[in-house]
Amino acid sequence: MSKKIQFIEYPKCSTCQKAKKWLEGQRLEFEDRNIKEEPPTAEELKSWYKASGLPLKKFFNTSGLLYKEMGLKDKLPGMSEEEQIRLLSSDGMLVKRPIVLGEDFVLVGFKETEWNNTMG
Fold this sequence. Notes:
Blueprint: E1 5-9, H1 14-25, E2 30-34, H2 42-52, H3 65-69, H4 72-75, H5 81-90, E3 99-101, E4 106-108, H6 112-119
Parallel strand pairs: 1-2
Antiparallel strand pairs: 1-3, 3-4
């Protein structure tokens, strides 16, 4: 029996809604988590980041209002990984979504081909 997939989303986000439809269309069982109500902890982010193989900046919601208001485009390059992870864990709205966690994968954002190759 395979472990359930964890789907971390912001329900009002249109990309998250598309991703959720895709998961349902694949008949994949998943557990839903609202990133705004239950933001990821620094520990979670650290382990997802390591498991994803992606650069840490890919975890930032660069099109989000908060990201822009805080001027993070200019600030991130000068911050340590530790500082970036702490910042991400301070507000779920800074984190790119959706994030899908499986037993042996972490996907950030919704790219249908990538999702097909990993879970389809």
